[in-house]
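User: Batch of two.

Assistant: Item 1 of 2:
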Amino acid sequence: MNSTAVPRGASEPFRQLRALRRARKLKQEDVARKAGISREAYLRAESGQADPRMSTFLAACEALGLEVVLAPQHLAADVNAFIASRNGGVTAASMAGQPAAASQPAPAAPAAGGFGSGTGEGHKPV
């Protein structure tokens, strides 16, 4: 497997986090430290070797400046379009190198821009 390939076992949300981390030229250690988790825990989650707790996923998202937004699947495309309209056409998927239309709607998807300041305000319901 080459260094840019995403491991087969990795979940789609962690695939996006991995691509975003790499696009920002961050090391796993950087994200793990900011998220308050061990590098090993982050590596296992990102590589698909472990099924991390939701708290690990949320901490990694916050460390990357993302807010997790829950949306009904039938509205996911509209939510992504709204985020892109407010964020210069950028969504979490496009930041990770994927076209926004290609991203699959998910019950919990990282959303670029977010609703919090990233200063520990916590996660706000939508």
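Item 2 of 2:
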Amino acid sequence: MTIGIVKGTYVATQKNDRLHNKKILIVQPITPTGKSSGREILAVDVVDAGVGDKVLLMSEGTSARQILTDDKIPVHTVIVGVIDDIDVVV
């Protein structure tokens, strides 16, 4: 699992049929302290996250497809939670 911040919404005029009615968001992975960690990724949103929200990402294809209950959906990453706060203990 990965932590990220939602940066925007991805809009496509043509989608795979299995992705219709699915919201796709652009997410910047971050470290627990809030620093950017890698390139932005696209993720299917199942928790109604919005721009600026910190989110928890499931980035394993099979697990992501199980969350969406569709074994044939072409998805790698799913937003599975909105994070209210992160406490880092050192």
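The chain has a mean pLDDT of 91.
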